[in-house]
Amino acid sequence: MMSYATATVFNYNVTATRPGARTDAEPPVKHIVIVGGGTAGWMTALTLSRSAYGPRLKITLLESPRVGAIGVGEGSTPWLRGFFESMGIEEREWMPACNATYKAGITFDGWSTRRGHEGYFHAFASMLDNITIGPFIDNVHARLDGADVYAHPNRFFIASRLASHCQAPRAPRSFPFDVWYGFHFDSVLLGQFLQKKAIESGVNHVVGHVTNVQLGESGNITSLQLEGDATLAGDFFVDCTGFASLLTGKAMGTPFVPFKENLFNDAAVVINRPNAGPIMSQTISTALRNGWVWKIPLTNRYGYGYVYSTDFCSPDNAELELREHLGIAGASDAPARHLRFHPGRVARSWTRNCVANGLAQGFIEPLEATTLLFAQRTASMLVTALEKGDLGEEVRAQFNDTLNAQIEGTRDYIVTHYKTNTRTDTDYWRANAANTNLSAPLQQLLRTWLGRHSIAGGITDGTFGRGYPVMSWYSLLAGVGLFPDDNETRPPTAQEAKYSLAEIDNLINRSAMNFPDHRAFLQAIEPKPEKSLQVYFY
After folding, report:
1. Is the dihedral of CA 13, 16, 20, 23 positive or negative?
2. Could you tell me where the DSSP H helices lie in 71-128?
3. What percentage of the chain reaches a pLDDT higher than 70?
4. pLDDT of 5
5. Is 103 a catalytic residue?
6. CA pair distance 53, 386, nearest whole angstrom
7. What gap in Å lies between CA 280 and CA 163, rounded to an integer?
8. Are 75 and 273 in contact, with CB atoms under 8 Å apart?
9. pLDDT for position 534
10. Which listed CATH number (3.50.50.60, 3.40.50.150, 3.40.50.2300, 3.40.50.1100) goes with 12-74+186-260+343-392?
């Protein structure tokens, strides 16, 4: 039996340099122009401004007065915590400004009809999980072998306990086990906050609408023609123009790789509602007839969004289904916004002297809140390349290969939610379960699991399951109950029944006593320890 007592240590600081770092080397480019604001644009600008070149690198962000922020995508992975820590920005500064809350993970409700597995929690990792992940995975393997043991993830991880009791995943410093957490936030306010910080860091903010992109003989972008005959030249460009992809897609002709055959959803309808009661520390994803609804808690409201496929449901029917789900079918004080998107990615995020970021780079879907993760990761990878001083073809190819692999690994994890569903109530869910357009690595992972073998080794060595750790994959597949049928189970052997669930419950419940009420904590957020935290990442 493999050991889970040791794991890879992951540092939260995911940017290339520490804040304030400087170098005497000349930057490989002098002027970087970021086209498009929003969260992705301003996050890129701030990350570049804090690079090793400091004020010697000219950064201009061009923002169109005609294009507003989409204003959804209001949840994050735990990597956002690393971004703010690496920028030296305290939670007590940015969170109140963005109506932000903590996120310990995601509940998936109604995705499975298997008895006892109708819902499960995808927990973010904690140091305490080193004690409980071994029993969980051992029980999962025993259950795959037909033993009648408890193998549902919710009971094994403290993040699930905190989320279900509306507790903040921030214990006092006297408690020695850190919990890795993400955030919920108002994305418009977050963009505005990042804008303020970036401008304070020396980023030039220009308001103008692009009418034409000028290319040189080499195919590089040389300048942007703006409405009113103004021109903005630069050495390097970052395309944050959203789904329009003005630079990467339209001007440079970079092909788009669709994920439509893997992921059917292409639309969403969004409604906000007041929130005056307890504040959850989780996102809830509830499966409906033709997709799923997110429920995201902010300090002042809940955000709801129904993500669905227009191949199976019209926008009007989707809005009606969401309103009925919320019990506000006739409410006039709850306006709805409709959005369309195309799941997929550009073939190359980095083309010649332009890097696409944010929605201009691509979009999977909001199920695991990964959009901001890739914006952050892309900005960090760009800073790393700049600081090495090599922007040549080989570096660009490696950049694109790395990013594409991460995007496709994330896509595979999200596809698995749909592929493993057992709902039969609509054509939408039946089509998802029957979908055979799966990547080769995902097919291998599922064959390994269904063959009742460990998938931990393949995930660890990168054979399959790229982008998500062992803990996440086991939580998903065990959470939806992808086990032999109950009528095929047998009594466990003494070895298979060696773990006491009462002891695990006792450990988690007593540990949870150290964590505060979520709303109360948000009203007086304490400063974080100065030291950058490390956690065990499974």
Report:
1. positive
2. 79-87, 91-97
3. 92
4. 33
5. yes
6. 9
7. 6
8. no
9. 45
10. 3.50.50.60
Helix, strand, or coil (residue 85)? helix
N-to-C CA span, the chain: 17
> How far apart (Å, rounded) are the C-alpha atoms in residues 427 and 435?
12
> For residue 366, which of 470, 296, 318, 272 has the smallest C-alpha distance?
296
Instruction: Out of 103, 197, 295, 419, pick the active-site residue.
Output: 103
Nearest residue to 150 (alpha-carbon basis) of 504, 422, 507, 423: 504
Where does 125-247 have alpha helices with state H?
129-144, 158-164, 187-200
Closest CA to 234 of 213, 252, 218, 250: 213
Rounded Cα gap, residues 432 and 417, in angstroms: 9
pLDDT at 303 (0 to 100): 95
Question: Which of these, 41, 43, 22, 24, lies nearest to 33 by C-alpha position?
Answer: 41
pLDDT at 6: 31
Task: Give the dihedral sign, CA 451/456/459/463.
Answer: negative
Query: Rounded to an integer, what distance in angstroms lies between the CA atom of residue 413 and that of residue 501?
Result: 29
Which pLDDT belongs to residue 526? 61
Q: Tokens 């408890």 map to which residue?
A: 150
Task: In whole angstroms, give the CA distance from residue 297 to residue 150.
Answer: 31
pLDDT profile of the chain (538 residues), mean per 10: 35 40 80 96 97 92 84 84 95 96 98 96 95 97 97 98 97 93 96 97 97 96 96 98 96 97 96 90 98 96 97 97 93 88 97 97 94 96 95 97 96 98 97 97 98 95 94 98 93 97 97 96 73 43
Query: How far is the C-alpha of 475 from the C-alpha of 486, rounded, in Å?
Result: 19
Tokens standing for residue 51: 């690079």
Cα separation values, 457 from 3, 454, 469, 470, Å: 11, 7, 11, 9
Q: Is the dihedral of CA 162, 165, 170, 176 positive or negative?
A: negative
- The residue among 37, 102, 241 whose CA lies nearest residue 523 is 102
For 80, 104, 431, 458, the CA distances from 370, given in Å and listed in that order, are: 10, 15, 24, 23
Query: 504-526, pLDDT tens digit by residue?
Result: 999 999 999 999 999 999 998 86
The pair of three-digit structure tokens given for residue 96, joined into one six-digit string? 């109140």
| Structure token digits, residue 511 | 């540990």
Give dist(CA 287, CA 267) in Å, integer. Answer: 15
What residues does each domain of the chain span? 12-74+186-260+343-392, 104-156+439-513, 267-340
Does the pTM surpass 0.90? The reply is yes
What pLDDT, on the 0 to 100 scale, is given for residue 332? 75
Length of the chain: 538
